[in-house]
Amino acid sequence: MSGEVVLVVLIIIGLIGRSPIISTAACVLLIVKLVHLQRFLPTIERRGLELGLLFLTFSVLVPFASERITTKDMLSVVTSWPGILALTGGAIATYVNGKGLEMLRLDPQLIVGLVVGSIFGIVFLRGIPVGPLMAAGITAILFKLFSFIAGRFF
Fold first, then answer.
1. What is the pLDDT of residues 52-89, one digit of tens each?
2. Is pLDDT of 129 > 80?
3. In this structure, is residue 86 part of a structural domain?
4. Transmembrane region positions (predicted)?
5. Which domain holds residue 101?
């Protein structure tokens, strides 16, 4: 199936599933292909995740820049259970992302499953795409879990 057809199908899936992110991304890539700017696709692929994370980080840091987060708020992070749990969650998430990166380096073709799974999650589970590293990290954890279970029983 040609890339254009796949992108049109993704646009339709995004519209049916009410996922403007999928529809918009597929639309932009379809335009890139139709106006013969394919030479930029490798750059988009290579730098797209970085740009996405950059804009995500912008949105997270705006409260600091706009001074809506006070010193008191920052102190509560280390003096309250929710704050301590948030610190722990952030640390665990970065660890899981690292394991995902290792897994993608060892088995790059997994990206196909991660992309299809992410599209499924966005469209049918109303999820938010946070990037292939977290998906790969969760895959790495599931792989270790299933390997452990299989080793114990088979």
1. 778 888 988 999 899 898 888 888 888 999 999 999 99
2. no
3. yes
4. 6-36, 48-66, 78-98, 110-128, 134-153
5. 70-154
45 part of a folded domain = no
Q: How many domains does the chain have?
A: 1
Neighbours of 143 (CB within 10 A): 15
Q: How many CB atoms sit inside 10 A of residue 48's CB?
A: 13
Three-class SS string for 56-111? Answer: HHHHHHHHHHCCCCCHHHHHHHHHCHHHHHHHHHHHHHHHHHHHHHHHHHHCCCHH
| Domain assignment of residue 117, yes or no | yes
Both tokens of 28, joined, read 């932009």
pTM of this prediction exceeds 0.85? no
Q: How many CB atoms lie within 10 A of CB 120?
A: 13
